[in-house]
Each structure stands twice: as C-alpha cells, then as structure tokens.
Amino acid sequence: MEFRSPEFKTRAVHALHDANLQKALSNTKAGFVVKRAKAAEEMPEFEALRDTAAEIKNHVLANLDHYLEKYEAAVTAAGGHVHYATDAEDARRIILGICKKANAKRITKGKSMVSEEMSLNEALIGEGYEVVETDLGEYIIQLADEPPSHIIAPAIHKTKDQVADLFAAAHNKPRKTDRAELVAEAREVLREKYFTAEVGITGGNFLVAETGSSVIVTNEGNGDLTQTLAKVHIVTSGIERVIPSLDDLSVFLRILARSATGQETESYTTFSTGPRREGDIDGPEEYHVVLLDNGRSKMLGSRFQDMLRCIRCGACMNHCPVYGSIGGHAYGWVYPGPMGSVLTPLIKGMDGTYDLPNACTLNGRCKSVCPVRIPLPDLLREIRHNQFRQDMTPKRQKQALKLWRYVAERPKLYHFAERIGVRILASMANGKGKLRSLPFDPGWTGARDLPAPTGRTFLELWQAKRGDK
Amino acid sequence: MSDTPIKPRPRVGLFATCVMNAFRPSIGFASAKLLEDAGCHVSVPAAQTCCGQPGLNSGDEDSARALAKQVIEAFEEFDYVVGPSGSCMATIRHDYPNLFADMADWRKRAEALAAKSYELLSFLTDVMGVTEVDAEYKGTITYHDSCSGLRSMGVKGQPRQLLGSVKGLTIKEMEDTDVCCGFGGTFCVKYPEISEKMADDKLANAAATGADTLLGGDLGCLLHLAGRLRRKGSPVKVYHTAEVLAGLADGPSLGEENR
Amino acid sequence: MSSRDTIFKAIRQGLGRGPLDDAARKQLDARIANPPQHIRATVDDADLVARFAQRFESRSGTTERIASLADVPAAVAALAESYAIAPSAVVGTALGELAWPEGWQIDHGAATIDVMLGVSLAWRGIAETGSILMLSGPDRPITHNFVPETHVVVLPVEHIVRHYEDCWVALRERGQGAPRAMNFISGPSRTGDVEQTIELGAHGPRRMHVLILG
Asked: C18: helix, coil or strand?
C-alpha cells in the first residue's frame, strides 16, 4: 500500500472540505459509538473482561516464542503449513510462491489488514493474477482503486450514491440506488468468483495454540466462502495474534464484536484447522499460514509493547474526534486513527510520520474504549518524545519550548513577563474583549478570536489584595 | 487541651494555571472563594509558574521534569494542591510520578504531591463534602466535559451537582458532551483546521440545547471555544464553572466586550 | 538465517531472555492443557432453549420447535413454500435418512453455485449468544452453511449449552482435536458496509431458520 503519511496535513485539510466524506463520517456515531456504548452497558462483566483480555495478551507476549511454537506444531499436525515473514517483502515472496505452485489465475480475498501491510494486492496483480476482494467494503474500494479508510469498515468514507456509481461502471448493469439492491448485485457478481478462484486469502483475528486454528470473525460470510471454495487457503496474520487456548479465546469473542460494532456477536466466527480431511467433500486442499513480523518483535520489551495487545477492533478510531473529522485516508497508510498513529511510525519508521502522533488532542477517549486497555495517548506522547530526542520536532516549536522553559524556570522573570504580556494584549484589545489577529500568530486566529486578558495577572491582583507570598 | 479533636482548616495551595493567571484572574478568585467557603485556608505560592505540560506533550521531557520539580518544591508543604483545571491537575497527579521513574527521591516527592492534588470542583465535593453553593446565575447553561478532567480526574457529576444548586440556573445537557472540543494544547495551533472542525461540532451540539451560556472546567478549552464563538459572532457566553459557582460571573464573559 | 529463526531471535531479544527452560515450558503447556476459567457472561436463564431462541431471533434469525427428526422434511418444505424456494436442497448425511415429500430433490454433496437451500445438523447451540456451532466433516459439508441463500439448521435441545466454554469441554471430550472447520453462526449473513446500514444476505445465507428439536 502506498505510503502517504508525509502528506498528512494537506490531505487532512482536503478531507475537511470533502462533502461526501463528511456526510459518510457523520454515520459513524449512530453506526458504531452508540451501539458500542449500549453493548458495553448491557454486559455487567464487560469491564472485567477487558482486564482479563489485557492480562491474557500480556501473558502471551511474555511467552510469545513458546506459544508460536505450540501453534505451529498444531497447524503442522493438522496438515497445514506455517510460514514466517520478517517483513512485507518476505511475505509477498512466500505468498507469490504458493500461488505460483497452485497454478492460480484468480485469487479471492477476505478482509486482511495484514495483507495491506504486505502490499499484497499490488504484488499479486503485478504478477498477472486476478485479485478479487470479497468483503463488500473492500470490494467497493477496490473498484474505486482506493485503500481502506477504516480497519473494519474499509469503505466507511463512501456514500451510497458513490457505491451506486462504482457498481454501475464496473458491472455493466443499470445503476441501482437501493441499498439492498446494491448488496444483492455484489453478491451475484462475487459468487462466481468464489467458485472459480484457485487461492483464497483471509486474515486471522486469532491463532489458537491449543488447536492450531486460525479464527476469523465476520458478518458477511465472504471469508468463509473465500476459504472454503478455493483449492488453497492462505491465512495472513501477525505474529502477535496467537493466544493459548479456546478458553482464552472466549474472552476475546465477548469483547471484540461489542467493541467493534456494538454487536453481542458477529454472524460468523470461523475456525480453520488445516486442509480438507480424509473423506471431506469440501474445504481447501492446502492450508497455509503466513505470520508477519514487520516490526512487531521490535516492540517487545520496548515502551510500546502494550500496542501488541491490539485486536484491531477499530473502537479507538470510531471514538476519535480527529478521525471523525478527517477520516482514515489522511493518515496515509494501512492503519488510521489512534492505533494507526502509534503503529505507523513504529512499522514504517519515524521519517514521514511526524504528524500522526501529533495530530491528537490527547483527549483519551480512545483509551477509554480500548478493549485491551492500550494506553494509546501515553504511547502517542511517547512517540513525540522519541521525535524530540531524534531532533525531529520543528525548529520553531523547539525554540518556543526552550524559551518557555527558560522563563518558566524563573518565577520572577515569568511573572514579570506575564504582567507585561497581558498589558500589551489588553491594550491591543482596547475594551473589545477579544483580538482578531495577533503579531507572531502561531495559528490561533485563523478561525478564532483570542479572548483578551483583562490587563492584570491573577498573581499580581492576589498579592495586592492578600499579600500572599 | 481539649479532648475533642479539632479538624484544622486544611491548608490548600492554589495552583494558578498559567493560562488562568494571564487571561482570567476571576477564575482564581472564584476558586479561592469556593475553597474558603468550604473551610480551607488558601495560599497562592508566588514561586509557581507552569505545570510543565507543554513540554511533556511536545516530547520535551527534560523541560517537563524541571518544571515539575519547581511545582513540587512550591507546593509540597500544603495539605492539598488544588487547581481550577482538570488538565494541569492531571499532569501533576498522573504524569509527575512517571517523570521521575529513575530518580527515587524525586519520585517519592512527586508521588506524595500527586496523592494530594485535585481538580477544584471534585476537591470541593469529594474531599470537602460541599453539596451546594450560595450563588445565583440567571440563564440556561450547557456544560462541556473537558477531557482531562473527565477521563483522568473523574470530573463529571461534581460540577453538575454544584451547578444544580445555583439559583436561577438551568442545565441543558448537550449531545456528545464528553467529546473533545478540539483544543488539545498546541494541537489547536498545529492543526488549526481540524481543531476548527471539532470546535464547530462541539458548538453545534451546544447551540442545539438553546443554552445561552457554555461552561467548562478548563480554561484552554474555553478560550478556544469562546474564540470560535466570538469569531462567528455568536452571543453565547462562556464562563469557567467556578466563576458561576462563586457568583463571579457578573463581569464580561470570555471574549466579551467590557460592559 | 531463516525468517523463522530471525523472528524467534528478535522475540527473545526483545523479551531479554533466551529460549525458555523446560520448567517454564511445562508450566505453559499445563496452562493450555488445563486452561484458566475466565469470567463469563452471566447466563442465569433457567430455560436455555428460550434464551437461545430469543438471542438468535434478535439478529433476524427465525426458529421453530419440532418434536422429532422425522418432522424435519415437512418443516423445511413448509418454509420453502412460504419463500417460494424450489423443492431442492443440499442435506448433510449427519441428519440420517429422512423421508422427503414427493418431488423433493436431495443432494448430499458439496453445495454448488446454484443451490438455494441447505439443511444441516448443528453440533451445539449456545444460549449465551443464540449461536449455533457447526463442525465440518464428510457428513457435514461446510459449503452447506454458506452457499445456499436459505439455511435451515436442526438443533437438538440436548445440545443447547450455556456458554462457549461448554463447547470447548465437549470438543475436548470428543477427542480428535479441532475439526477442519468449525463455525459459530449467529444469524443470517449481514453487512453494514454501505453507509453503516445493515443489509442481510451479503454473501452467506440471507435467511436462517433453526429447527429446535425435542
């Protein structure tokens, strides 16, 4: 996937003026936020489950090597193959190899953000394969030739009318505007693809070490058709997604859907364990799991380890007012919103990702809904610290911070300066109570006035009245 | 000596946030009045400046640490540190101890200070047991939950409870009252367009209540929102909650012309 | 060095240790063999069948009570008639020999693209969420669960359990490890991908009907 995070600022402003996008984003609240709140409220155990989920993930991370070995052994025992990929290129090489061996022409894909990390579609298409995204949202944006803008609702930025245009152009059928008709049309078009694809690629929400199962949690059933009807099933997942046992999984099943869509459960929770067994009359003949590292192992033991608990539910972005204002594309890579603003600099590097952790008000709403209690604002602030240490903070801001510190460390100078400052601003306001512009404006008065100070600082008034020292 | 233990008036160091000190002294006086009415002895140490949050949130931990030390030294003698801001007080309460992870002495002092640091209104209700105030405000208000106060300091019911006792005042809750207003410290100048959009969302929700007054507990958010309201020519008044509770909301509201 | 070795080395480096010793491994394996019992959703309903039906129906599924396996064909036929579905279905042999009404075409093979109706035997029903658990096998083709537009599932009441965890216990008692495929299905296929408004029948069955048996 193209890396456009360096353009964050311009793309964010562009997004703010995109009427279709703004209309689409306004559905997020009713679609996700309200439902999640209701789901959480209706389940008395929800908060305790969040604690447990975080504990399980911490336990796994501390013993990740062992659980990966157990998982791998169980997959192998079931006749499947586990492949490890250090980075995106490694993963592409592995998957292209499997597809070539399978003599594939057509490849169906269920939604997988890890495959976006791998830039897999571009690689497969480059090698001449037909790649068909089957999740409705992914299908829509594939037709639009756009990347996903949300990790569980990839086409959340598209309006119904835009979908209608895309379908009419791609399907050579009369333009439909009824939502149900649009869904039915996609169903019909994609059905044939499932039955004729040689390879089906899906993600993996969880990997169960106990059984060697990969688990996907979906609503549409496209993942099931993708992986059941193709001859070869390839699972793409991250190395951190393994969990010990089915009993551990139960905890995540109870929080994932509630956090993501506010559902008690999604329609389908599907476990895949190896290829078709003796006597089976359906199911894939080959089963491969490609486990991607891509910077994850580096987070272990670092101040960012908590990020590896992420189960990709999307709650953080659904509740992020910045995401809600600009949508996912402005973030410029696979993962948008709060979790993406942590992951992108860690995976893609600090270059070109400066804005991501900074375009955040640290309001903490993401943290308050994260099902595995990732302290996202703290991690974002931690990245800012790294940027500062690596001298990436803009010079002007650094100078301002330096000056602020110099003055603030000297209370007498500080209070003297504040007294002068408030007098100047008050006289500039000239009784109007506000300032419409400022000399050396750092960016305040573009869209707002500055309420003017009254002319005296609190401390000087207090000392005059009370003589406190 | 008496056998009855006399509860001494708790000695409170009032943390005069840098924005309040410069822009809105009446919030400081309102805080002092509310604290004194609740039976506290209030001092305002002259050695205080800034809590260090600008550095902390911009990646400059060293500067945050230097200023934190200064705050600790200025305030550790008091029984409590109280400030009319969820944001600054959350920095003291939650961030100071972490800033000194590798300095045992300072960490101990930071933790001691953190443990007695409170946002003003929650201090009044939760520690001092205040349930009502003697004040009057003629108007309909809507209250914006500033994020740090709400999520880091647990400020939610307290201001509403106290506002409920103000004569003449009606509270109308807005939609998404717990969603960030787009201030976010330096965020509002680094990403002014996003900040503007968030302010407009917030103000649309506030306007939908029909309230004539917008209240909140963090002056940063209020300067931002009042600035946006003034720019748009809206007549909605903006005050800090403490000003209303102390009966000091009779002067011009934030950004309003002198009357 | 293989990618696998590189990754394992990096993991251990990150964790600041070498490979775990035998004692630690044994402990972790014991945790898998004897998994901790975590907090569950409270399901204190006395009537699990009612709870199952109520939860399943909350997601646009439908249910019907039947007395015996022999009632399945008539129930399926009635449903087919009400939705104008042709008298043809894929049926897993796990349901045994059923006496289908005259004119019905029954296929026990994998579902092909034109199949409109599937009839399957559930392995368990979960009262907590109103979900059914399907296992794959020669007598339970997995395509029956996803390809047909209408999916009818037979769920014996004695197989309705309280929680997910009850399924794990039953699976472990069954032995043989996990089946190739295992699906919790909680209602018809749905999507919210067009303007976050739910539509049924995205790719999988548009209709799901559970025949609660017994």
From this structure: coil
Kindly list the partner chains of chain B, i.e. chains with 3 or more CB atom pairs below 8 Å.
Answer: A
Q: Output DSSP code: residue A59.
A: H
Q: Which two tokens stand for residue A446?
A: 């573009």
Q: What angle do CA C77, C79, C82 make, to 5 degrees?
A: 110
State the pairing for strand pair A268-272/A242-243.
unpaired
The domain boundary residue, chosen from B93, B125, B157: B125
- Residue ranges of the domains in chain A? 49-297, 403-466
Q: Is residue B211 part of a domain?
A: yes
For the segment A391-409, the average pLDDT, to the nearest whole number, is 93
Helices A246-260 and C164-174 cross at an angle (nearest 10°) of 150
- What domain range includes position C18? 3-33
ipTM of the complex: 0.97
Q: What is the mean pLDDT of residues A239-259?
A: 98
Return the CATH fold of A49-297: Rossmann fold (3.40.50)
> Please, what is the angle between helix C22-33 and helix A64-77, to 10°?
60
- Across chain C, the runs of DSSP E, i.e. the strands, are 62-66, 88-91, 105-107, 117-121, 124-126, 131-135, 150-156, 160-161, 181-185, 190-191, 199-200, 207-213
- Domains held by chain B: number: 2
A251 with C38: Cβ contact below 8 A: yes
Give dist(CA A219, CA C188) in Å, integer: 8
- Same-domain pairing of C181 and C82: yes
Mark yes or no for CB contact A78/C35 under 8 Å.
no
Does C118 share its domain with C160?
A: yes
Task: Identify the domain boundary among B107, B125, B143.
Answer: B125
Residue B28 forms contact with A (CB below 8 Å) = yes
Count the residues in chain C.
Answer: 214
Q: Does C3 touch chain A (CB under 8 A)?
A: yes
Residues C69, C26 within the same domain: no
pLDDT value at residue B5 = 45
Q: How far apart are CA C86 and CA C89, in angstroms?
A: 9
Question: Range of B225's domain?
Answer: 131-245
Strand stretches in B51-129, DSSP E: 80-83, 117-119
Q: Are A235 and A205 in contact (CB under 8 A)?
A: no
Q: How far apart are CA C8 and CA A293, in angstroms?
A: 10
- In the predicted model, residues of chain C with pLDDT beneath 50 are none
Q: Give the CATH number of the domain where residue C151 resides.
A: 3.40.50.10420
With cut-offs at 50, 70 and 90, classify the pLDDT of residue B1.
Answer: very low
Split into its structural domains, chain C has a count of: 2
SS3 for B146? coil
The interface residues of chain A toward chain B in range 145-184, judged by CB-CB distance below 8 A, are none
